[in-house]
Every structure is written in C-alpha cells, then in structure tokens.
C-alpha cells in the first residue's frame, strides 16, 4: 500500500460524499465496483443499478428528505492493507451527517463506516460500504 494508494482512497471517500450530497446518482454508483454493496440505516443495495436507483431516490423521495438535505462529514480515515491481497484494503472512518440551517445546523447522525475497497483499472472503488450508527 503506497501513499498514492492512500490518497486515492481518501479521494474516493470525498467523491462519494460529493455525489450523494449533490444528487449525482451516476457519480455515486461509480464510486463502487460493478458488484459493490452499500449497507446502511436506509437499506442494503447491491450492484451499480441498485446503487444508482437508491442515490436517485435519496435525492428526490420524501422518505429520504431529512438525510438528503444534510452533508456527509467524514474524518479519522484509517486505511489498512489486506495482508496477502494487493488489490484490497479495509477503511475505517467516522461519519457525521450535518443538516445546515439558519441557526448553524444540527447533527442528524453520528456513526462510522467499515469499508472494503478494491483496486480497479481506473483506481480504487468501494466493494462494500457499511454504515454503523454509534448512537
């Protein structure tokens, strides 16, 4: 695991956050491998088609409105190589979902991500992303 790999993985996290926070369903789905999986408090989604549909619904459907108006703030990113596998790494990071408002905002969720990322031809992608609420 090189420093370049670690920078690319951190960039992947940022691209994921930007895509879900701005309603970019294609950009969101493309942060995952074709068979990638997201497991969160809103459901489990497998493969890019389901991931894309989830991200589109997240940006437009009332059931996700509170979360969709929030921002993902991710910190304390720890990347660990998987021993004996140069193509995968595990990633731990803290998550806060912050909803902006006139009075400064409020935190909707405090939790963490447990991720498996995989090296692909065009860079690192999420193979599995699990959201854990710490509340």
Topology:
Layout: H1 3-22, H2 25-29, E1 32-40, E2 43-46, H3 47-60, H4 65-68, E3 71-82, E4 85-99, E5 106-120, E6 123-133
Parallel strand pairs: 1-6
Antiparallel strand pairs: 1-2, 3-4, 4-5, 5-6
Structure description:
The radius of gyration is 15 Å and the shape is globular. The protein has helices at residues 3-22, 25-29, 47-60, 65-68, and strands spanning 32-40, 43-46, 71-82, 85-99, 106-120, 123-133. The longest helix has 20 residues, at 3-22. It has a six-stranded mixed beta sheet with strand order 2-1-6-5-4-3. The protein contains four helices and six strands. Strand 5 and strand 6 form a beta hairpin. By secondary structure, the protein is of the alpha+beta class.
